[in-house]
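Q: Could you fold this chain for me?
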Amino acid sequence: MLETELLHPPLLAALAAAGHGDHIVIADANFPLRTATDRSVDVVHLNLRPGLVGVLDVLEPVLRAVPVEAATFMASPDGAEVEAHHDYRRALGPDVAIDVVDRWAFYDRTRAAGVAVVVATGDQRLCANVVLTVGVRAM
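A: Sure. Below is the predicted structure, expressed as structure tokens.
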């Protein structure tokens, strides 16, 4: 029995297999799972229905399970502030480097080598996607 709050077996396995510099994509409900990722990357489906489960619901326990050194957010196409990013910044804390890139640059990152897992959520907020870069575990 695990003592961590993260109990989803496929997600735990993917996180355990990820190493320093690998990427974890947590995708909103609008993210094009198959065209914006390499087909060989495992997809964990947590998108039960629209609005459930949200990106923040996944982000918070993932941050307690793996060290994260950086994050990339998807910018709004019109340059507007993305409300979800405030929640993510708060959860990530001040020591995690954050980059905000346009949609096409974001998709380039999600298609690149080094993506360990993509987590599909039902988050309906626009541009609520995040890519986490796995850091180094402190001894």
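A (continued): The longest strand covers residues 68-74.
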